[in-house]
Amino acid sequence: MPVIKKEPQVLISRWQAASSPSLDQIRSILQSEGHDSKVETFLKNQKAIEKKHPFGEVRIVVEGELFLNVSGTQLLLRAGDRIEIPANTKHSYSTQNEVTVTLYTHYPY
Question: Residue 99 is part of a domain; what is its CATH number?
Answer without folding.
Answer: 2.60.120.10
